[in-house]
Design a protein that fits this description.
Blueprint lengths: L5 E7 L3 E10 L2 E11 L14 H18 L7 E5 L1 H5 L3 H12 L3 E3 L2 H14 L7 E7 L4 E7 L2 E8 L3 H8 L7 H15 L2 H4 L7 E5 L1 H12 L6 E3 H14 L18 H15 L3 E4 L4 H12 L6 H12 L4 H18 L5 H13 L11 H10 L8 H12 L15 H16 L12 E5 L2 E7 H6 L1 H13 L6 E7 L1
Parallel strand pairs: 1-4, 4-5, 6-9, 9-11, 13-14
Antiparallel strand pairs: 1-2, 2-3, 6-7, 7-8, 10-11, 12-13
Helix pairs in contact: 1-3, 4-11, 5-10, 6-10, 8-10, 9-10, 12-14, 13-14, 13-17, 14-16, 14-17, 15-16
């Protein structure tokens, strides 16, 4: 990546939307601009977990302002990620369809573990190099992430459905701050977070760090009250909770250092933080400068190089876990790439990476059963955490895997997506021609593409030499019918 390149991360959180713009300079990231808007979209979910129209509108309005600032940047320079609220929202596709257009860049809904990984990436990159074992806690609006790691490497990543917005709505619904409401909220938080005791016990880490809004907001208040800069102590947290209870209502809270946008969610955030301190026996938590958005920026850097792209490591790990026949995977990958180069002569590195990954994984379903192994493989992908991948990106690979054999029309996908259809066509042809688990003869084959029609040409001599492959290709032309796309086959002298 060239010096001076701008990179941007958009974080669609449950409490706030944030935009981080940075410049790549000699291997380092330097902040250029940071924008934050507290929109509390997490409180806009109704009883059926659907985003209310007004909650969607406030999100769109914010993204329009961010989109104006991002104008002129290319797709590979920007990544937008959405977290728990949009993971939960049943109508998220309705929101995202317009949100993508307004922002001008695709928005990835990421899983909880992936959010945790990116948070640790952002936190660790802004901390001094150290061998200390780190506990990183990020209390968001509707989820809390906990990560154990060392250096730049996260080891244990977990996400829990508890957060400052959700807890404030549920346990402090009228803004009342009573001793009983705090006690109830803390017990409820501990019930959700209790399983963290097994993996995040006090013996597993040396220093605790808090990332993002809640911990930073509490630290600001405690610093104004005389506590050390950038820390939250057990004593200070108890003092703050007592002050909130004495105030009795969020509207009556008058504490130096408290930002106004934190007022409505402070009760929920403090109750969750108190529960974590008790559960994990934390005495002092340090405020981390890094957060999810910085992790996304550094991840953009890693994605630019195949050797540092975590997604490639995830694919390799799954190959090993499900004992994939690597020789066959490589045959299919080479054949798929050869066809893709023919219909994308100018190259499309990102599309080819995805094609390579799904080629590498197309037989993972064999570990369940050979019959319908493509369906088993798609099921595995849909139910496996995949570090480095967003949920839509991982689903994209799952649909390719599901569609690599059998009927094409069974796919729950948009056949107007030309890039996807090209990948699917190349993958299906590659799997078909590698049916004998030998390297196929591809040199006589020529695939072309025009509009919604693919043409595959081969010599009559090739068809006579490989009659089974020729038969399978004829059947393939039928399978593409009623999809809106065609595959034409031409055996010529």
């Amino acid at each position: 990546m060239e010096n001076g390149t701008l990179l941007a991360a958009v974080d669609l959180g449950s409490n706030s939307y944030r935009l981080e713009i940075a410049r790549f300079v000699h291997g380092q990231i330097q902040r250029v601009e940071y924008l934050k808007e507290s929109i509390r979209q997490g409180s806009g979910l109704d009883e059926e977990r659907r985003l209310r129209p007004e909650a969607m509108q406030v999100g769109w309005d914010c993204l329009a302002r961010f989109g104006e600032r991002l104008a002129g940047l290319q797709k590979h320079q920007v990544r937008a990620v959405a977290t728990q609220t949009l993971r939960e929202a049943k109508n998220r596709d309705d929101f995202l369809q317009r949100a993508n257009q307004i922002l001008g860049f695709p928005i990835d809904v990421i899983s909880g573990p992936e959010e945790a990984r990116l948070i640790y990436q952002g936190v660790s990159r802004l901390l001094p190099i150290s061998n200390e074992r780190r506990l990183v806690v990020d209390i968001g609006g509707r989820s809390t992430e906990m990560i154990l790691g060392q250096g730049y490497q996260p080891h244990v990543m977990a996400s829990y459905r508890v957060g400052s917005v959700a807890w404030s709505m549920k346990y402090f619904p009228d803004g009342l701050l009573t001793e009983q409401s705090f006690a109830t909220a803390e017990v409820a938080a501990k019930a959700v977070l209790d399983e963290a005791l097994d993996s995040h016990s006090r013996s597993t880490w040396d220093v605790a760090y808090g990332s993002s809004g809640t911990v930073g907001a509490v630290a600001d208040i405690l610093q104004a009250a005389g506590e050390p800069f950038g820390t939250v102590s057990r004593r200070g947290l108890a003092w703050l909770k007592d002050r909130l209870i004495k105030a009795g209502h969020v509207d009556k809270v008058r504490i130096e250092g408290m930002k106004e946008d934190r007022r409505p969610v402070l009760g929920g955030g403090v109750s969750v933080l108190s529960a974590i301190f008790d559960l994990l026996d934390i005495d002092v938590m340090h405020v981390a400068q890094g957060a999810l958005r910085q992790g996304v920026v550094y991840d953009l850097l890693d994605r630019e190089l195949p050797q540092t792209d975590l997604r490639a490591q995830t694919v390799q790990s799954l190959q090993e876990r499900f004992q994939v026949d690597r020789a066959q995977a490589e045959r299919v990958c080479e054949a798929a790439m050869a066809f893709h180069h023919q219909i994308e002569p100018n190259g499309n590195e990102r599309a080819e990476r995805k094609l390579g990954w799904v080629s590498s994984l197309h037989e993972i379903g064999f570990q369940i059963a050979h019959t319908d192994y493509h369906r088993h493989g798609a099921y595995i992908l849909d139910n496996t955490d995949a570090p480095g991948f967003s949920l839509p990106e991982w689903h994209h690979l799952g649909q390719l895997l599901l569609g690599h054999r059998g009927k094409v029309r069974k796919l729950d996908t948009d056949f107007e997506n030309e890039a996807f259809v090209k990948q699917l066509m190349c993958l299906r042809l590659a799997v078909l021609l590698c049916h004998a688990r030998r390297t196929p003869s591809l040199s006589p084959l020529q695939l072309s593409h025009q509009g919604k029609t693919f043409h595959l040409k081969a010599s009559t001599q090739w068809a006579q030499q490989f009659p089974q492959s020729a038969h399978l290709l004829r059947e393939e032309t039928v399978l593409w019918q009623k999809t809106g796309w065609e595959l034409g086959l031409d055996f010529h002298d």
